[in-house]
Specification:
The complex is a heterodimer of chains A (351) and B (85). Chain A is mostly helical and 351 residues long. Chain A has one domain. Chain A is built from twelve helices and four strands; from the N terminus they run ββααααααββαααααα. Chain A is globular. By secondary structure, chain B is mainly alpha-helical. Chain B has two domains: 42 residues, no CATH class; 32 residues. In chain B, 60% of the residues lie in helices and 0% in strands. The radius of gyration of chain B is 20 Å and the shape is elongated. The two termini of chain B are 39 Å apart. Classes of the chains: A mainly alpha (351), B mainly alpha (85). At the A-B interface, α3, α4, α9, α10 and α12 of A face α2, α3 and α4 of B.
Chain lengths: 351, 85
């Protein structure tokens, strides 16, 4: 069974390569579907495979750059990428990220920052999960009201904070064609600075924060938020891959093996968005955020109760990997069902 | 643009990371893997350039293979009909 293990030339360890491909496929499907890099899912997976953690972040970012590129190209064909919005947000994201990362190093010099960062992450995830499900609940309530009054249920909307922000008319005012919104250019710049800053402090790529920000603060439709977020992830991924590799922290062989699965998975996840309505994507995203929050709680408990740390850490890892498997399987099945219906409808049309 | 041209200026990658130098042990490597490890040891700049060329190429290559398979199945890969609600 030696052929199932490949020697990593830089890290000097042997890794079970089918595990890397499977992890890549799962994270690729989820990334293409939600528009995020998925570092919070990859790190526990790499940990389980015995991958040296010194290379985990750089390797993850490198593979993420490749999968995000192909997923962005596919989302672009679907009309899901607002490049103008993406470019405007890019500078805010990079500047915000550097600011956040510098702040972390400053806090590190002052004392123990790890627990503070985890609590901030947990607070943020709880807020995002609440936002998503409050939005869905409000929409369902409006649907019931419209149905009872004999009006079209499709007119129902949920949380619309972006409408308040769109009223701020500080020039220059910009129209974003794919997103279908007109707002002050300062709105996406400010939002990207904020999400970049949070990502920098938390040490994450930012897709988990940026996607709901695009929906609820800027007002993008869900599919456009997914595609535009992937565009940002692609740019920041390439930039991150360059910097981490320059510092010798990327195991390129592992990144390539993961990318083989991830690029295929990303296409599956992207195509699956064709068959699921925007609110369907939001609900599944909400569950993903809850799963991530629970794993953070378990890790915090492991810090607080060192005697139980192996069980708690193991449970957190199992939860994340179970979530990756469950969600990617769900999205894959939805894609297959949707594709089957599409092909059947096409055959009926031709006959 | 400076950020893209001069990654070494990215301070946020971590001061602590700078303090540790990792060297690949190429004694047990041969062929392509040995060349790979030696390139890493000799020049992180060239290794970085290799990374940012290979990663997009491989991502696009395998993504296009997936596209070919899905296109052959009859899935429309050019448009999306379903909307927000």
């Amino acid at each position: 069974m030696d052929w199932l293990y490949v020697l990593m030339p830089i890290a000097g360890v042997e890794i079970f390569w089918p595990g890397l491909i499977i992890l890549g496929i799962g994270v690729g499907i989820i990334g293409g579907f939600f528009g995020m890099g998925g570092a919070w899912m990859v790190t526990p997976g790499l940990n389980i495979l015995g991958f040296p953690m010194a290379f985990a972040i750089g390797t993850d970012i490198a593979h993420m750059a490749g999968k995000s590129l192909i997923a962005t190209m596919r989302h672009g064909k679907f009309g899901n990428v607002d490049y103008k919005l993406g470019f405007i947000m890019l500078f805010g994201t990079i500047a915000g990220f550097e600011l956040g990362a510098q702040m972390v190093m400053w806090l590190e010099r002052m004392g123990n920052v790890e627990v503070v960062v985890r609590y901030l992450y947990l607070f943020l995830l709880t807020g995002i999960a609440w936002l998503v499900f409050a939005d869905v609940a409000k929409k369902k309530r409006r649907e019931r009201e419209l149905m009872l009054s004999g009006q079209d249920e499709d007119e129902a909307t949920g949380i619309e904070w972006h409408k308040t922000f769109h009223k701020i008319k500080i020039p220059p005012m910009v129209h974003f064609k794919e997103a279908g919104i007109t707002c002050s250019a300062w709105l996406p710049i400010f939002v990207s600075l904020l999400t970049g800053w949070l990502a920098g402090i938390l040490g994450i790529g930012g897709g988990l924060i940026r996607m709901p920000s695009l929906i609820y603060l800027i007002g993008c439709p869900t599919h456009v938020a997914v595609g535009t977020d992937l565009f940002e992830v692609m740019i920041s991924g390439l930039y991150g891959a360059a910097t981490y590799t320059f510092k010798g922290r990327t195991e390129l062989v592992a990144a390539i093996i993961m990318l083989v699965g991830a690029s295929i998975g990303a296409q599956v996840g992207t195509v699956a968005t064709k068959y699921i309505k925007g609110y369907g994507i939001r609900v599944v995203f909400g569950y993903a955020v809850i799963g991530c929050a629970i794993s953070i709680v378990l890790k915090l408990l492991a810090k607080g109760f060192p005697a139980y740390a192996p069980i708690l850490d193991g449970t957190a890892t199992t939860l994340i990997l179970g979530l990756v498997f469950g969600m990617s399987a769900y999205i894959f099945i939805k894609m297959l069902k949707g594709a089957k219906a599409e092909i059947a409808a096409k055959k009926q049309t031709t006959h | 643009m400076g950020f893209f041209c001069w990654p070494g200026l990215v301070w946020a990658s971590g001061e602590k990371v700078d303090a540790i130098v990792i060297v690949a042990d190429t004694r047990h490597l041969s062929g392509l893997m040995a060349w790979w490890g030696n390139l890493y040891n000799e020049s992180h700049v060239y290794f970085m350039l290799l990374t940012i060329v290979l990663i997009p190429l491989i991502g696009v290559a395998f993504g296009l293979i997936a596209d070919l398979i899905m296109g052959h199945m009859g899935i429309d890969l050019e448009s999306r009909e379903l909307a927000e609600h």
